[in-house]
Amino acid sequence: MSELKAWQQVSSEYLVQETWFKLRKDQVMKSNGQVMPAYYVLEYSNWASVFPVTTDGKVILVRQYRYGIEQWSMEVPGGIMDPGETDPMEAAKRELLEETGYSCKEIIQTAVVAPNPATSNNLMYCFLATGCERTHQQEFDEHEELEVLLVGLDELKQMLRENKILQSLHVTVILYALEKLGVIKW
Question: Who has greater pLDDT, 141 or 173?
Fold first, then answer.
């Protein structure tokens, strides 16, 4: 492997600073000394998503409207880690409980992925939760509107084959969980 060095930030300015994201424009020096006058970076909090399985072997999915693609989307529970939240596993359990009303007996981390490392600075933590049971009422965030669906593993695999789960990061969560469960092998 070559001896390429990390790119260096020469200057930086924020163009947008909102609650859930920031957009900054950096001037960057590449490892070869070339200066890029404008490199845009989206700053997000880290995300935590969970593949939850009930005590009777059903997978808990959520269906919610995604304005960016203007359609309803089948997904796994998950979301942004709240300010001050430092433990991704606790964030995943919180998201599971808030979005679905389900708690889990066991939860393990299956992966950490970078949603878009070219232009975004955050990570998404992937989890598998088992022994899930409904213990609470759902507690949506201010702008959440979703429904909970329980599906069998065969139905879930068919949904993947038919491209019915469009959220690519959630497909990643699902695939890591299915591998951990021994349902698929790679």
Answer: 173
Amino acid code (one letter) for 186: W
For residue 120, give the DSSP letter.
B
Could you tell me which of 56, 110, 52, 111 has the C-alpha nearest to residue 78?
Answer: 52
Contact by Cβ (8 Å): 36, 27: yes
Q: How many residues does the chain have?
A: 186
Residue type, 85: E
Q: How far apart are CA 37 and CA 25, in angstroms?
A: 9
Contact 132, 55 (CB under 8 A): yes
State residue 138's pLDDT score: 87
Helix (H) or strand (E) holding 96: helix 88-100
Q: Is the pTM of this model over 0.85?
A: yes
Residue 56 to residue 132: CA distance in whole angstroms:
9
106-160: per-residue pLDDT in tens? 999 999 999 999 999 999 999 999 999 999 988 887 777 899 999 999 999 999 9
119: tokens are 């232009």
Structure tokens at 144: 């959440």
At residue 5, φ and ψ (nearest 5 deg) are: -100, 160
Over its C-alpha atoms, the chain yields an Rg (Å, rounded) of 19
Spatial separation of the C-alpha atoms in residues 135 and 119, rounded to whole Å: 39
First to last CA, the chain: 26
